[in-house]
Design brief:
The chain has 192 residues and is an alpha+beta fold. It folds into 2 domains: 8-20 and 33-109, Class II Histocompatibility Antigen, M Beta Chain, Chain B, domain 1; 117-191, Immunoglobulin-like (Sandwich). The protein has 3 helices and 12 strands, in the order H-E-E-E-E-H-H-E-E-E-E-E-E-E-E. It has helices spanning 7-21, 82-90, 92-109; strands spanning 36-45, 50-59, 62-68, 73-76, 117-126, 132-137, 140-142, 146-148, 152-153, 159-167, 175-180, 188-191. The longest helix is centred in the middle third of the chain and has 18 residues, at 92-109. The radius of gyration is 30 Å and the shape is rod-shaped. The two termini are 30 Å apart.
């Protein structure tokens, strides 16, 4: 997934930089250097069930305009931000695009916690030791992500083995475990 950057940010940054760096804004004692920052913040509650999107516009370490998705519009934090907030709120396409950024920025870039899912098949109490345990996904044998314990002796001439498949669950996929052993008339297949 490519990182999505709000287009309003780029437009606002260019306009503010052009205005602030124009010769008319340079007074005799004003600074020639300044810092303009934009911060976009996504707050997730319960995965993507509840999302709050906040953007902050900052000039020389002072926040002057903020958009909060809970409020639904831009708000001036200082007098410097009043003209921008009023203008952005008066433009339906800007406000609509900013509101949509909750989905295009936050939801699009969300990465949930990394989880590992594995299917496990414990085969016990078999003799002789020769056994074949295989995993299949939608009828195709899986070899990547398969691991197994060594044969474990039970102490009564029988054995056991644990065979695992690390996988990422996807809707509609069918996993099966296929066990072949000389004591069986036909292989045992268990579907997950």
């Amino acid at each position: 997934m490519a990182l999505q950057i709000p287009s309003l940010l780029l437009s606002a940054a260019v306009v503010v930089l052009m205005v602030l760096s124009s010769p008319g804004t340079e007074g005799g004692d004003s600074e020639r250097h300044f810092v303009y920052q934009f911060m976009g913040e996504c707050y997730f509650t319960n995965g993507t069930q509840r999302i709050r999107y906040v953007t902050r516009y900052i000039y020389n370490r002072e926040e002057y305009v903020r958009y909060d998705s809970d409020v639904g519009e831009h708000r001036a934090v200082t007098e410097l931000g009043r003209p921008d907030a009023e203008y952005w709120n008066s433009q339906p396409e800007i406000l609509e695009r900013t509101r949509a950024e909750l989905d295009t920025v936050c939801r699009h870039n969300y990465e949930g916690p990394e989880t590992h899912t594995s299917l496990r098949r414990l085969v016990t109490d078999f003799y002789p030791a020769k056994i074949k345990v295989r995993w299949f996904r939608n009828g195709q044998e899986e070899t990547v992500g398969v691991s197994s314990t060594q044969l474990i002796r039970n102490g009564d001439w029988t054995f056991q083995v644990l065979v695992m498949l690390e996988m990422t669950p996807r809707r509609g996929e069918v996993y099966t475990c296929h066990v072949e052993h000389p004591s069986l008339k036909s292989p045992i297949t268990v579907e997950w």
